[in-house]
Design goal:
By secondary structure, this protein is mostly helical. It has two domains: about 70 residues, no CATH class; about 100 residues, no CATH class. About 40% of the residues lie in helices and about 5% in strands. The protein has ten helices and three strands; from the N terminus they run ββααβαααααααα. It has a three-stranded mixed β-sheet with strand order 1-2-3, with helices on one face. The longest helix is centred in the middle third of the chain and has 21 residues. The radius of gyration is 41 Å and the shape is rod-shaped. The mean pLDDT is about 85. The structure holds zinc ion. Zinc ion (ZN) binds next to loops. Zinc ion binds next to loops.
């Protein structure tokens, strides 16, 4: 920033001396063909003051001249004016930057989500962490039931974590192996029920967001008396 100092004259004089360490404004004022509005106003004011008479003298005081670091900064800033001008239309807009940030966050979130595949059973069913419209059901009980089935953590398959001493098995198949969620959709003794309700034999396909017959899952579970136990 240029520093200008107005040195007042003695009381009996009508002359002023204005010292500035910035040469460019002084050259601009001395240029009578300048079209810069502020310079024109100063020139008109000086002309008016001279007619009073009122003498004003400008003097350049190069206070920073010879200071190496200051000269370097000046030379660097001046050299930047010779660089190719960046066209405004190739600069990214606010919308572009917002989109890029959202894309990056989504990418990182998806990567973190999929890295939990071994510990999070829902990842197998839902590979991308995006909202599913089917997660919102008209009935609260159906919504809870669907969520329990999707995370494969139900009252039927994990009663031993709450009250039952051991995991339950499929009483239709008569095996001693713990009952997983996928068996509810593939048990051979429930085939007729699944066909009647048009339920896919794969639990991953049946519980997917895009499964067209998703509401039939609740009637299927009701028909085999599983709905209230999920
Ligand atoms: Zn079975």
């Amino acid at each position: 920033m240029p520093r200008n100092h107005l040195i007042p004259p003695p009381s009996h004089s009508c002359s002023f001396l204005i010292c500035s360490d910035s040469l460019s404004p002084l050259l601009a004022i001395s240029n009578t063909s300048s079209t810069y509005p502020l310079v024109n106003r100063i020139q008109i004011l000086l002309s008016t003051l001279n007619s009073i008479p009122f003498r004003i003298t400008f003097r350049w005081v190069p206070s920073h001249r010879g200071m190496r670091r200051n000269e370097n900064i000046y030379a660097t800033s001046k050299s930047a004016t010779h660089l190719p001008r960046i066209q405004p239309h190739i600069l990214p807009t606010k919308f572009d930057l917002t989109l890029s940030i959202l894309h990056t966050i989504s990418k990182l979130w998806t990567s973190h989500w999929q890295s939990q595949k071994s510990s999070n059973k829902l990842v197998t069913l839902k590979p991308f962490p995006i909202p599913w419209a089917s997660s919102h059901q008209p009935h609260r009980r159906h919504e809870i039931c669907l969520t329990h089935l999707r995370i494969r953590h139900t009252g039927l398959t994990h009663p031993h974590l709450l009250s039952h001493p051991s995991p339950l098995s499929c009483n239709l198949c008569g095996t001693d192996t713990p009952l997983p969620v996928k068996h509810i959709f593939s048990c051979p003794h429930l085939t007729s029920h699944r066909k009647a309700h048009q339920i896919h034999y794969s639990h991953l396909a049946a519980l997917d967001d895009n499964f067209l017959n998703l509401p039939s899952i609740f009637s299927y579970l009701q028909s085999i008396n599983y709905l209230s136990r999920i």
